[in-house]
Design brief:
heterodimer; A: alpha+beta; Dipeptide-binding Protein, domain 1; 4-stranded antiparallel beta sheet; globular; B: about 900 residues; mainly alpha; Four Helix Bundle (Hemerythrin (Met), subunit A); Heat Shock Protein 90; elongated; SBP_5 (chain A)
C-alpha cells in the first residue's frame, strides 16, 4: 500500500509546513503596526453630538468624517464627505454633492448594504434637530452643541435632492455655518445602521457601538483602561498604515510620561509643562507644539450675588496675580489672556488693556460695594489636565491665596471629569475654572457659543450665565454677515463690552503640546482633527 | 492354469485394493493439503492482524517522531494480511468459507482505511500539540517581556519619584528661605519701629531692654541681606522664572531705607537737642528779662527798663505754651503766643533761634517720616514678594505631592499587574501541564474543561491594566493556544471513536481469522482420519484376500521351482554334466526348464571363449599403458619446447639489442681510430663519440642485465625448485620478515604492505619457496598494478584451514586483470607489458612453486580497477603424496 504512505508523508509534510508557518507567525504578528495613544480620560460617549469635551472628540474623531473638513490652520476645505458644495448668493441655500463609494464600517451587529448617501446626512441633522425623530430621545438626548451653536433656529430645512445631493436652507445668513459643519457634532452617522437597530429595538447600541466612515473602526472600549480601534480596510481615502490604534486611558500626567518613556505608549496627550525641558532632552521623544487656539477662564456666575455686582467681579479680577498664576501653572506653555478669544484669531482686540494686579483697588471696590467684611464663594476646578489648563487644582489654590488677601474666602470643589462637565453647566456654581478650544477657527465659536443669551440654561455652554443685550447684539450682528471687516468690528466691540462687564476672568491662552516617540511618523498636532490618518510607526 | 494367471490373481487383488486406496487417498490428500494450506493462511492472517494491531497500539504510544516506523509496520502487516486473504479467497478449499473470507477482507479494508484516518488525525493532533507548545513558549516569552518592561517602567517611576522629591526639596528650600527673609524683614521692621519710638521715649529698647546700637542694626541688615541671598540662590537653582522674584534687590532696597531712616533719626535727634537748647536759652532770656533770673550770670543783663520787665513777666507766663508749641513744632502757627516776647528786644535773638531750630526739627521730622515711608514700602515689597513666592511654591508643592502620590499609586498598581501577569504565566503553565496529561490519556472532556479554563484566563488577561500592546500579544498567544487545544480535543474525540471502531474491527478480524484457521485445521484433521480409516480397512481386506490367494498359488509354483533349482545347482559346476528335468512340461515351468537347459549349455560354451578373450585383453592393456607413458613424455617435451622457445625469444631480444649496440660501437671505434690516425680528430668528434659510446654502453648494460634476469628467472622456474631446505617455522614472523625484506621495493613506490596472519600457524616445509612466491607476487603488483604515483595497499593474509591446510591470500588494490586475460596469467611468457621488460614468467614461476613445491593450489580473481587477489591453499606439512593431489589438477586455474 504505497499510496497511503505517500498520503501520510504528504500530510506530515503539510503538518510540518503548518508548524513552520506557525513558527514564523509571531514575526508576522509583530509586524502588525499598533500605535498606543496615552489619553487623559474616558470619553463621555462615542457620539460627539452629546459631548463637547475634547476627550470625547478625540475618541470619536478617528471613526467619523464630516461634510467639510478643517485644515490644521483652521481653514475649511472641501475635502470631506462632500465632494463639492455651492452656496446661493443670499447665503441661505447650501447644496452639498456627496462623494460616492464612501463605505461605512461594519461590526458584530451590522454590515452596511450601501455606501454613504443623502439619508445619512439627513439623519445626522434630524436626530439632533427634531424632537419627534425616533432617535431624538435615545441616550442623554441633550444635543447641547447643536443648540448652543444656534442651529435649531438657524436651520430652515435639510433636504435630499437626490441620493447624493443635500440641500440645507438657512433661516438667515450665518457666516460660520460651514465651520459648524466641520465640527464633530455634525460628523455623519449611518442612517441605515440607525434603522437596523430601531427594527431590532437596540437603539442604545447606536452610540455605544458607533458606525462611521472614518479611517478607523471601533473594536472595543474598556472604561479606565483602553479604547481599541482597527484600521478600516474600506476607508474611502485608502487604508491607514497603522493596523491598530489604541487609546490607553491614563489620567495621571506623570504616569503618562512614564509610559511614553518606557515605550508603552507612542503618543502622549498633554505633557506636564514642567517636564517639557526633560522631554526635549530625551532622544527618543519628540515634542509637537501648536498654538492651542484656546482660552482658559474662570467664569463668574453673573446671576448669583454677590457676583451679579460688576464691582465685585472687577475686584476679583484685580485681586488675582494673573502673571504669577500663568507662570506657575503653565510654565512656558501659556500666555496670560485678556480677551475671551485667543490672540491668533481674527478680530482679536489687542487694544484692550488687561486689568492690572491691584489688590488695594480691589479692596477698595469691595468696600465700595459694601463687602468690607468679605464673603465666601465656591470655586470649581477641573480634576484632569485640560489642553487649556494643565493643573486646575493649582490654579484654584493660587486664586484662593490671592482672593483671601482681599477678604474673599474660597471653597475649592471638583468632581470626576464627566460629572464636572455636567454640573458646571447647571448654573449653580459661583465660579468655575474652564476653558474652550475652538472647533472651527471662527470667533463665533467662542463669543457666541460660550456667551450668548441662549446658552444661559441648564446644560448650556454659557457658564457665567451672562446675558448682556449690547454684547448679544454685537455677536448676533456679526453672525449674519459674511463681510469679515464688519464682523471684525462687531467682535472687537463685543470684546470691549466683555472687558468692562467681566463675566470671566480670562486666565491664559495655551500652547498645545503633544509628545510622541521618535518612531512615530507623519504625526501632526492638528487640534481640529486628530484622526491619526496617515500616521505611521517605524519598527524599532 | 498358467502361473501368470495365478500370479495375476494373487497380485491383482491387493493391487486393486491398493489402487482404490491410492486413488481415494490421493484425492483426500490433495484436498487435505489444500485445506491445510488454507489453515496456514488463516493462521497467518490471524498473526498479521494481531501484529498490525500491536503496531497500531504502538503507534499511539511512541513519540510522534517514531510514529512513521509503526505506521510502516502496520501497513506491511495489513498488506500481508490482505494478500493472504486474497490467496485464501482464491484457494478452492475456501469455497464453503468464502463469505467469511470476503467479510474479513472487507473488514480489513475498512480497518486499514480507519488506520489511515487515524494516522491523519494523529498527525493533525501532533501538530496541534506542537502548536500549543509554540504558543505556550510565546506566552512565556511575552510574560518575561512584560516583566522586563514593567521593571523598566518601575525604574523610570523611581527616576520620576526621585526627581519629584528633588523638586519638593527645592520648593522647601525656597519656601524656607522666603520665610526667613520675611522674618528678618519683620525683625528689622520691629527694630526700626522701636528705634523711631525711642525718639519719643528717649531710648530704643531691643528685646531685653538694652538700648539699640548701630551694630544691632548692622547685624539685622546683614541677616536680611543674607537670607535674601540664600533665597535668591535657591530660586536661581530651581526656578526658571527667577527674574520674576527680585529678592536681593528688594532686600537691598529695604536695607538702604533702614540706613536712611537711621540717618534721619540721628538728624532729628540733633535737631531736637538744638531745639531743646534754644528753648532753654529762650526761657532763660525771658526770665532774665523779667529779672527773675536766679542766676548771677544773668544779672548784669538785667538792666532793662521796667516796661520791658513787665512785658517779660507777661512773657514768662506764656513760656509753657511756647515750650509746648516748640516741642510740637507749631510755634510758627501761633504767632500771638510769642507776640509779647517779640516785643522785647532782648528776646528777639533767642526767639529767632527758637524759630530756626523749630524749622530744622520739623524738617528732620519730615525726613524721618519720609524714610519711614520708604522703609515701609520696601518692607511691603518684600512682603509681597515672599507672599508671591510662598503662594507659588506652596501650590507647586501640593501639585508635586499629588504627582508623587499618583506615581506611587501607579507603581503599586504596576507591581500588582506584574504579579497578575506572573500569575497568568503560572496558570498558563498549569493549564499546559494539564493539557499535556489530557492529551496523553486522550481525555477529550478534560481537554474541553481546559479550553473553558483558558477562556477564563483570557478574561483575566483582558481585565488586566497592562500595556495594551503586550496585552494584545498575550491574548492572541492564549487564544491560539486554546484554539490548538480545542482542535486537539476534537482530534482526541475522533481518535477515540476511531479506536473503538478499530478495536471492534480488529477483534472481528482476529476472530474470523482464528475461526477460519480452526475450521480448516479441523477439516484437514477430518480428511486425515478418513484417509487412515480407508487405508486400514482397504489394507486389511487386500491383505486377507492377497494372503489366501498367495498361499495356494505359492504352493503350486514352489515345488517345480525347487526342483529346477536343485538341478541347476548341480549343473552349475559343470554345465554340460546332464539334462534338466521337466523340459517337456507345457506350462511356464516347462519353458523354464527348457530355457535353463539351453542356458546351461550356452554358458558352458561361452566360458571357453571367454578365457581366450581375457588373455588377449591382458596383452592389449599392456600395450596401452606403454603408449600412455609415451604420450605423457611427448607432452612434456612439447611443453619444454614451448618454454625454451619462449626463453629463446625473450632472451633473443635483449641479446640482439646488445649485439646491435656492440656492432655500432665497433663501427664508431673504427671511425675514431681512423680520425685519430689521420690526426684530424676534432674535439667535437671525440665528444660526440664519447656521448654515443656512453649511450651504447648504457644500452648494452641494460639489455645484458635484462637477459641475465631472464636467465635467472628461468633458472628459478626450471632448476631452482629444490633450493632451500625444509624446516619447521612459524608463518607469521616469517611473513613479517619477508615483508620487511621486500620493503625497499614497495616503500619506494609509495605502497603499503600489510601482513595479516594468525600467530599460531606453523609450517613444516620450504620457507624459501614461500619467499619466492610472495616476492614474485609483490613485484608483480608493484610493476603492473599501479599507475605512476598511485599508492597501493598490498595485503598478505594467511589463515589455517582445518588442521592441515593453510590459506594464504595475497591481494592488491590496483588496476586488476582484464577478464579476458584472467585465464592466461599463469601461462609462461604471458605478459601485457613485454615492451616494459616483463618476461611473463613471474606468475608461471609462482604457479609452479605452489603446485610442485608446496603441493598446493593457487587461484586468482580480479575485477578491473578493484585489484587482484591470489588465493593459495597448501598443506601445512609438505609430503610427497601431496604431489598426487596436485597432479590431478587439470588446469592452472581455479575459478
Amino acid at each position: 500500500m504505497p499510496l497511503p504512505l505517500k498520503r501520510l508523508t504528504g500530510s506530515l509534510a503539510r503538518g510540518a509546513a503548518v508548524l513552520f508557518g506557525l513558527a514564523t507567525m509571531p514575526g508576522a504578528a509583530l509586524a502588525e503596526k499598533s500605535l498606543v495613544y496615552c489619553t487623559e480620560g474616558n470619553p463621555q460617549s462615542f457620539n460627539a453630538q452629546f459631548s463637547t469635551s475634547g476627550t470625547t472628540v478625540n475618541a470619536v474623531t478617528p471613526l467619523f468624517n464630516n461634510l467639510v473638513e478643517m485644515a490644521a490652520d483652521g481653514q475649511i476645505t472641501g475635502s470631506g464627505l462632500a465632494e463639492s458644495y455651492t452656496i446661493s448668493a443670499d447665503g441661505l441655500i447650501y447644496d452639498f454633492h456627496l462623494r460616492r463609494n464612501v463605505n461605512f464600517h461594519s461590526n458584530d451587529l451590522f454590515t452596511p448594504s450601501r455606501p454613504l448617501n443623502a439619508d445619512d446626512v439627513l439623519f445626522t441633522f434630524e436626530r439632533q434637530w427634531h424632537a419627534d425623530h425616533p432617535y431624538h430621545n435615545v441616550g442623554p438626548a441633550t444635543y447641547d452643541y447643536f443648540r448652543d451653536m444656534g442651529l435649531p433656529t438657524l436651520l430652515k430645512s435639510v433636504e435630499k435632492l437626490d441620493d447624493h445631493t443635500v440641500r440645507i436652507t438657512l433661516d438667515h445668513p450665518e457666516a460660520p455655518f460651514l465651520a459648524d459643519l466641520a465640527m464633530p457634532f455634525l460628523s455623519i452617522q449611518s442612517a441605515e445602521y440607525a434603522n437596523f437597530l430601531l427594527k431590532s429595538g437596540r437603539q442604545t447600541s447606536f452610540d455605544e457601538m458607533p458606525i462611521g466612515t472614518g479611517p478607523f473602526r471601533l473594536v472595543s472600549y474598556q472604561k479606565d483602561v483602553a479604547i481599541r480601534y482597527k484600521a478600516f480596510d474600506g476607508y474611502w481615502r485608502g487604508r491607514q498604515p497603522l493596523d491598530n490604534l489604541i487609546y490607553s486611558i491614563t489620567p495621571n500626567i506623570a504616569v503618562r510620561l512614564n509610559k511614553l518613556r518606557s515605550g508603552e505608549c507612542h503618543v502622549m496627550i498633554f505633557p506636564n509643562p514642567a517636564e517639557l525641558g526633560n522631554i526635549e532632552k530625551d532622544p527618543n521623544l519628540v515634542l509637537e507644539r501648536q498654538d492651542g487656539r484656546n482660552v482658559a477662564y474662570m467664569a463668574l456666575n453673573t446671576q448669583k450675588p454677590p457676583l451679579d455686582d460688576v464691582r465685585v467681579r472687577r475686584a476679583i479680577t484685580l485681586a488675582i496675580d494673573k502673571r504669577t498664576l500663568v507662570d506657575a501653572v503653565y510654565q512656558n506653555g501659556g500666555m496670560p489672556a485678556k480677551n475671551p478669544i485667543p490672540p491668533g484669531m481674527w478680530s482679536y482686540n489687542d487694544s484692550i488693556e488687561d486689568h492690572p494686579f491691584d489688590p488695594a483697588e480691589a479692596r477698595r471696590l469691595l468696600v465700595e460695594a459694601g463687602h468690607a467684611e468679605g464673603f465666601t464663594l465656591d470655586l470649581w476646578y477641573p480634576p484632569v489636565t485640560r489642553p487649556y489648563l494643565p493643573n486646575g487644582k493649582r490654579a484654584a489654590e493660587m486664586i484662593r491665596e490671592n482672593l483671601e488677601r482681599v477678604g474673599i474666602k474660597l471653597t475649592l470643589k471638583t468632581e470626576s471629569w464627566g460629572n464636572y462637565r455636567r454640573q458646571v453647566t447647571q448654573g449653580e456654581q459661583d465660579m468655575v475654572l474652564y476653558g474652550w478650544t475652538g472647533d472651527n477657527g471662527d470667533p463665533d465659536n467662542f463669543l457666541y457659543f460660550l456667551l450668548n443669551c441662549g446658552a444661559v440654561r441648564p446644560g448650556g455652554a454659557n457658564i457665567a450665565r451672562w446675558c448682556n443685550p449690547d454684547f448679544e447684539e454685537q455677536i448676533t450682528k456679526a453672525k449674519v454677515t459674511s463681510d469679515v471687516s464688519r464682523r471684525t468690528a462687531h467682535y472687537r466691540t463685543a470684546q470691549q463690552i466683555f472687558h468692562q462687564e467681566v463675566p470671566w476672568f480670562p486666565i491664559a491662552n495655551s500652547i498645545i503640546v503633544v509628545a510622541h516617540r521618535k518612531e512615530v511618523k507623519n504625526y501632526t498636532n492638528n487640534i481640529f482633527n486628530q484622526d491619526f490618518s496617515g500616521v505611521d510607526i517605524e519598527a524599532r | 492354469m498358467r502361473i501368470r494367471s495365478r500370479i495375476a490373481v494373487v497380485g491383482g487383488v491387493p493391487v486393486m485394493v491398493a489402487a482404490v486406496i491410492a486413488v481415494a487417498g490421493g484425492l483426500l490428500l490433495a484436498r487435505s493439503e489444500r485445506v491445510y494450506e488454507s489453515a496456514v493462511l488463516a493462521g497467518s492472517v490471524y498473526r498479521d492482524v494481531l501484529a498490525a494491531t500491536a503496531a497500531r497500539i504502538d503507534y499511539l504510544q511512541v513519540a510522534p517522531a517514531d510514529r512513521a516506523s509503526r505506521a510502516d509496520r502496520f501497513e506491511s502487516m495489513s498488506d500481508s494480511a490482505a494478500a493472504e486473504l486474497r490467496q485464501l479467497d482464491k484457494a478452492g478449499s475456501a469455497n464453503t468459507h468464502r463469505a467469511e473470507v470476503e467479510r474479513a477482507t472487507a473488514v480489513l479494508a475498512r480497518y486499514v482505511d480507519q488506520m489511515r484516518s487515524f494516522i491523519q488525525v494523529t498527525a493533525a493532533n501532533d501538530s496541534a500539540v506542537a502548536d500549543m507548545g509554540l504558543h505556550a513558549s510565546t506566552l512565556m516569552a511575552l510574560t518575561d517581556r512584560a516583566r522586563e518592561r514593567q521593571h523598566a517602567a518601575n525604574v523610570d517611576s523611581l527616576g520620576s519619584l526621585t526627581e519629584a522629591d528633588q523638586r519638593l526639596r527645592d520648593s522647601r528650600d525656597v519656601v524656607d528661605s522666603a520665610h526667613e527673609l520675611r522674618e528678618a524683614m519683620l525683625d528689622l521692621q520691629r527694630a526700626e519701629a522701636q528705634h523711631v519710638a525711642a525718639l519719643g521715649f528717649g531710648v530704643g529698647l531691643f528685646g531685653s531692654g538694652r538700648p539699640l546700637t548701630l551694630a544691632d542694626f548692622h547685624i539685622a541688615i546683614d541677616r536680611l541681606i543674607g537670607t535674601a541671598d540664600r533665597l535668591q540662590s535657591a530660586l536661581d537653582r530651581t526656578d526658571p522664572l527667577v527674574d520674576r522674584y527680585p529678592a536681593k534687590q528688594s532686600a537691598a532696597r529695604y536695607a538702604a531705607t533702614v540706613d536712611g531712616l537711621q540717618a534721619a533719626v540721628t538728624q532729628l535727634r540733633a535737631a531736637q537737642a538744638e531745639r531743646d537748647a534754644a528753648l532753654s536759652r529762650f526761657e532763660a532770656a525771658v526770665q532774665a528779662a523779667a529779672g527773675l533770673g536766679g542766676d548771677d550770670a544773668e544779672r548784669p543783663a538785667i538792666s532793662s527798663p521796667l516796661g520791658e520787665r513787665m512785658l517779660a513777666e507777661q512773657a514768662i507766663r506764656t513760656l509753657p505754651v511756647v515750650r509746648a508749641l516748640v516741642l510740637t513744632g507749631t510755634l510758627n502757627r501761633q504767632p500771638d503766643v510769642t507776640f509779647l516776647s517779640s516785643m522785647l528786644p532782648s528776646l528777639r535773638a533767642p526767639l529767632d533761634g527758637l524759630y530756626r531750630v523749630q524749622a530744622r526739627a520739623a524738617a528732620a521730622q519730615q525726613a524721618l517720616e519720609a524714610a519711614q515711608r520708604a522703609g515701609a514700602e520696601a518692607a511691603s515689597a518684600i512682603e509681597a514678594l515672599t507672599a508671591r513666592i510662598l503662594m507659588v511654591k506652596a501650590t507647586g508643592y501640593t501639585a508635586i505631592q499629588d504627582e508623587v502620590v499618583q506615581l506611587i499609586a501607579y507603581a503599586i498598581q504596576a507591581n500588582d499587574t506584574e504579579q497578575e501577569t506572573q500569575n497568568v504565566a503560572v496558570v498558563a503553565l498549569r493549564l499546559g501541564r494539564r493539557a499535556a496529561d489530557a492529551v496523553a490519556v486522550r481525555d477529550a472532556e478534560e481537554a474541553d474543561r481546559i479550553v473553558a479554563d483558558a477562556g477564563a484566563l483570557l478574561e483575566t488577561v483582558r481585565g488586566l491594566p497592562m500595556s495594551p500592546l503586550l496585552q494584545d500579544e498575550v491574548l492572541s498567544a492564549i487564544r491560539n493556544w486554546r484554539d490548538s487545544l480545542r482542535r486537539t480535543a476534537e482530534g482526541l474525540r475522533r481518535l477515540n471513536q476511531l479506536l473503538i471502531t478499530m478495536d471492534r474491527d480488529a477483534g472481528a478480524l482476529v476472530e474470523t481469522a482464528r475461526q477460519l484457521d480452526e475450521t480448516f485445521r479441523d477439516e484437514a484433521a477430518r480428511i486425515g482420519e478418513l484417509l487412515t480409516r480407508i487405508l486400514v480397512i482397504g489394507a486389511t481386506i487386500g491383505l486377507l484376500l492377497g494372503g489366501g490367494a498367495a498361499a495356494v498359488v505359492a504352493r503350486s509354483i514352489s515345488r517345480p521351482v525347487l526342483r529346477l533349482q536343485k538341478q541347476m545347482t548341480r549343473l552349475a559346476e559343470d554345465p554340460l554334466a546332464g539334462p534338466i528335468d521337466g523340459t517337456r512340461r507345457q506350462d511356464e515351468f516347462g519353458a523354464m526348464a527348457r530355457a535353463a537347459a539351453f542356458f546351461i549349455r550356452e554358458i558352458g560354451l561361452r566360458e571357453q571363449a571367454a578365457r581366450q578373450a581375457k588373455d588377449r585383453a591382458d596383452r592389449a592393456l599392456e600395450d596401452l599403458r606403454r603408449t600412455q607413458a609415451d604420450l605423457i613424455q611427448a607432452e612434456k617435451m612439447a611443453s619444454l619446447g614451448g618454454l625454451v622457445a619462449g626463453v629463446a625469444h625473450e632472451i633473443n631480444t635483449p641479446l640482439g639489442n646488445a649485439l646491435m649496440g656492440a656492432t655500432h660501437l665497433e663501427d664508431r671505434l673504427a671511425i675514431l681510430a681512423r680520425q685519430a690516425g689521420g690526426s684530424n680528430l676534432r674535439r667535437s668528434d671525440f665528444a660526440e663519440f664519447q656521448e654515443t659510446a656512453d649511450e651504447i654502453a648504457r644500452l648494452l648494460v641494460l639489455n645484458l642485465q635484462q637477459a641475465c634476469e631472464l636467465v635467472q628467472s628461468f633458472k628459478q622456474v626450471a632448476a631452482d625448485q629444490t633450493s632451500g631446505e625444509e624446516r619447521l617455522f612459524l608463518l607469521k614472523p616469517y611473513l613479517e620478515d619477508l615483508a620487511t625484506s621486500l620493503s625497499p621495493s614497495w616503500r619506494r613506490a609509495g605502497h603499503s604492505l600489510r601482513v595479516d596472519c594468525s600467530e599460531t600457524i606453523e609450517i613444516d616445509g620450504f620457507p624459501g619457496v614461500l619467499a619466492q612466491i610472495l616476492t614474485n607476487l609483490v613485484m608483480n603488483s608493484i610493476t603492473h598494478a599501479y599507475r605512476e604515483g598511485q599508492r597501493g595497499q598490498l595485503l598478505i593474509a594467511a589463515a589455517a584451514q582445518g588442521a592441515d591446510m593453510v590459506t594464504l591470500v595475497y591481494s592488491d588494490d590496483g588496476r586488476g586483470i582484464a577478464p579476458a586475460d584472467l585465464g592466461r596469467v599463469f601461462d609462461p611468457f604471458f605478459t601485457t607489458r613485454r615492451g616494459a621488460g616483463s618476461t611473463g614468467l613471474g606468475l608461471h614461476i609462482v604457479y609452479n612453486l605452489v603446485v610442485n613445491r608446496l603441493g598446493g593450489k593457487i587461484a586468482v580473481d580480479s575485477l578491473p580497477d578493484r585489484g587482484v587477489r591470489f588465493t593459495i591453499r597448501f598443506p601445512r606439512r609438505f609430503a610427497t603424496d601431496n604431489m598426487t593431489l596436485v597432479a590431478a589438477v587439470p588446469s592452472p586455474q581455479e575459478q
